[in-house]
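Researcher: I'd like a structural prediction for the single chain below. Treat it as a standalone chain; there are no partners to consider.
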Amino acid sequence: MPESIDAPRLSLTSSEMRRLADHVVALVIERFDTKSDSPIGKRPTKAELEGLFAEPLPAKGDDPMRLIDQAVEQAFGNTIRVDHARYFAFVPAPNHFVGAMADALCAGFNAFAGTWMVGAGAAQVELTVMEWLRQIVGMPDGAGGLLVSGGSMANLTALVAAREAVLGEDFGHGAVYLSDQTHSSAIRALKVAGFAQRQIRVLPSDKSFRLPFSALQAAVSEDRAAGLCPFCAILNAGTTNTGAVDDFETIVPWARSEGLWIHADAAYGGLAAVSPNQKPKLAGLGEVDSMAIDPHKWLYAPIECGGVLMRDFSLLKRAFKILPDYLLDKERDAGEVDFCDHGIQLSRSFRAFKVWLMLKTFGVEAFAESVDHNVRLAEVAGERLVAKGFELAAPPSLGIVAFWHPEADSAAHRRAVDRLIEDGFAMASSTQLKGRTALRMCTLSPLATKEDVEQTVDKLAQFVLASRSH
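Model: Treating it as a single chain, here is the predicted structure.
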């Protein structure tokens, strides 16, 4: 008689699963309920955290309820809340309970969104969501794309597709143009895609922190005369530093006449176009060849959720499709879309579900109102800053305002960032603009109020001026 095989000890009963799920959902609800009235979070040192999780690989199991409570206190409790109503640093990730529950459902169902063969429902929802996003940003009929982890992967995916479409395998002579305000992920993407530093032309931005059209024209002419092949211009739709939007209406037609691929890093500002009041600020954006967008910013989806849109969707497959023998079964000439053929990932989560569920639950009008609210809060911040003696580096743009105090040096501004975190009320961040240290606020949370913004400005004024004597 063959020896019996015991089942692995990796199962939970239905009641145990329900008890665990109830506990987790209760913790999440508590988290959402305290987005506005809790401290912003902590920035502990490495030394403070080293002993908490430095432990041997566990041979025996433990109670998951106790482990989750430990993680809530020691891991999640030692972070800064990027979804807090007064998290105004960098670019917030506001998050929404509906999106969080969508992610939980996708994880529980372990939905695979790589091939139509085993993930048809997920693929169809993603096609629908990408069509909605295309409409929001104004790209033409026939444009399409896919969801990725965020803006960094979106820029990489789009720029590799552009390289393949325009330059092919011999791309050592291609030149790419961008401003000094372009997000670092674009430069990283170009390097990962194989471009040398000499091929990446970073042009000084103008006084409005936009890509100067005349400087772009001159650089393209200069490179052509030197035997290079001007290949791509990267334009910004909402820079991280100041929210600046490049002049798409002027640059795109000229760039196309010069044979340049036009890529938009619209990861921050692109989906502000969901608001009819903000869309005119992004005029010409929909005419580009490729675009990076981030639903985990202005559609408030949980991290991770970025997107790539291409004027010619087929160029993604041309760049990325590889068909090994073990995937032949998925091939069927029936108009099916295998998203694994259009990007880097084969194993893909069902990211589209949270975007679909949130848009279906609330409708675009609710998102438009929230975007308008976010943009207005940055204007409120600008008004308060001027009243408190700060100077604005540029007018508030798409929910971002950058500023400095004329009576404080760079160190005082940076110390104010730390002081604000230690205070626990809010968080802002610093940057460099034309060689000068600036503070900046990004008012992306739909929960933030006028009072939140004004009190944060007041505290920054207090901390900047108090830091002058140190």
